[in-house]
Amino acid sequence: MKIDASIRDQFPILDQTVNDRKLVYLDSAASSQKPLVVIEAIENYYKTTHSNVHRGVHTLGTRATDAYEGARENVRRFINAQHQEEIVFTRGTTTAINIVAQSYGMEHVGEGDEIVVTYLEHHANLIPWQQVAKRKKAKLKYVELTPDGRVTMEAVRAQVTDRTKVVAMAHVSNVLGTINPVADVATLVHSVGAVLVVDAAQSAPHQKIDVQAIDCDFLAFSAHKMCGPTGIGVLYGKKALLNAMEPVEFGGEMIDYVGLEDSTFKPSPYRFEAGTPIIAGAVGLSAAIDFLESIGLENIEAHERALARYAMDQMRDIEGLTIYGPEERVGLVTFNLGDVHAHDVATVLDMQGIAVRAGHHCAQPLMRWLGASSTARASFYLYNTTEEVDALVTGLRQTKEYFSHGF
Amino acid sequence: MDFNNLDLLYRQVIMDHYKNPRNRGAIEGGVTIDMNNPTCGDTIRLQLAIEDDIVKDAKFDGEGCSISMASASMMTQLVKGKTVEEALKLADIFSSMVQGKDYDDETFDLGDMEALSGVTKFPARIKCATLAWKALERGVEEGE
């Protein structure tokens, strides 16, 4: 099914002018916009259902608990997890990975052990592991990339050894748009008795995720990149692993019995959800999942890939423009326009109403690998159109013109 | 396309400093300050030779956008030969100027620096303009 431009009616924010131009929002990989159904689900929750969860005897307490746990079940189904207990609501991908690093990592990684990451990790899936490696005197190893920026099984095999305890890897690169072979990596990782942590922040919004098919041990993603609200994300973990892990935050909600000197904790997911949870956020995320599924993840993915191909075909004709990463990619294009700095590109595009990301994209090691101090990135989502890609290409040509002849 | 607004930011004198930076290079034995803008990846290495409370020499190197590099070029030009106190006063004046506040344009000849006042219309770029001046402030502290 082709996605019709009428989908834009669902996103009121898109219907505005920026710097007197029609807004062209090409920064969804940083954060997506929100459809009315999500905005209304959150509003409706606060208008009709809100109370604290898991504690009140009263009716609203039950309704709010049902909404919150209903959202958990919807997430479980969405990523095909076996059990609801495997779905922990967190503040986002970053918090989810930090929980795994601080709890599982600190417990299972020892001196001389190895943690394996890749050169294309977002800082969220890198710094937490750097910290574990530093504190535990473990070795942090990097999987090399092919010249066009892909992770191959051969390169992963070259780093994973019997001393490897954790392999942490993005499902999709937020800079290159490449898809990593996480299912094959999981098999390899398990053969040496290690665990695989998948950063799915850039994949969950765009493609069907099946945690059982991947067989990853942990997986994390954020709602705000997939039409949901900010402030909520998901940590998936295999039930046995989560239940054996120490909580990271302590307080209400997560306890079982509280004594004067010590306490016992609930099983997963509650042991990782101290305090009043992100109830409205979960409701919003659940509505976002329903929305994405009503359109079809496969349709969304095809739409974005077509836009990226359409964009790359035209961008290649701009002299001096460099596109980073391989041909095979998801719906984003990272580039530099000759010697015009990415920030200057982004500012000139912004004056034409076009929003792109510029900078190091929270992936400094990858930037160094690319030999670029910064790059610009256009990322596409279900609401983007070929006309918007045309606007980008025109904008880039004018940017080039401005910087070559404007002075 | 209407580039009038852009011309406020990218004035000719700024692009000239970007393309032909003044005082780009290194100083033997001076104070060295490395700073970066973690939100965008711009980096600057500023080196200062401070003697008898006077900034005798200032050189910079780095990578960044036109605004950050032009600002560094202008800054080194302006503070050379000034006392430490005067250099810090200039940093204050610059900070006020790019934030759109009233600023003192009488005490010193601000020269090319005033071309950067257009950055007030581009809030996302103010940090690019101030990076070199932040390095100067830190360098002067360390040099004392």
Summarize the structure in words.
The complex is a heterodimer of chains A (407) and B (144). Chain A has 407 residues and is an alpha/beta fold. Chain A has 2 domains: 5-26 and 296-405, Aspartate Aminotransferase, domain 1 (Alpha-Beta Complex), CATH 3.90.1150.10; 39-293, Aspartate Aminotransferase, domain 2, CATH 3.40.640.10. Chain A is built from 13 helices and 17 strands. In chain A, the strands form 5 sheets. A 7-stranded mixed sheet of chain A has the order 4-10-9-8-7-5-6, with helices on both faces. A 4-stranded antiparallel sheet of chain A has the order 13-14-17-16, with helices on one face. A two-stranded antiparallel ribbon of chain A has the order 1-2. In chain A, strand 1 (17-18) and strand 2 (21-22) form a beta hairpin. By secondary structure, chain B is an alpha+beta fold. Chain B contains 5 helices and 3 strands; from the N terminus they run ααβββααα. In chain B, a hairpin with a 4-residue loop joins strand 1 and strand 2. In chain B, helix 2 crosses helix 3 (66-79), helix 3 (66-79) packs parallel to helix 5 (126-143) and helix 4 runs antiparallel to helix 5. The relative contact order of chain B is 0.20. The model of chain B has no long low-confidence stretch (mean pLDDT 91). Chain A binds chain B through residues 19, 341-344, 347-348, 350-352, 358-360, 364, 367, 373-374, 398, 402, 406-407, and chain B through 1, 3, 5-7, 9-10, 12, 15-16, 39-43, 63-67, 122, 124-125, 128.
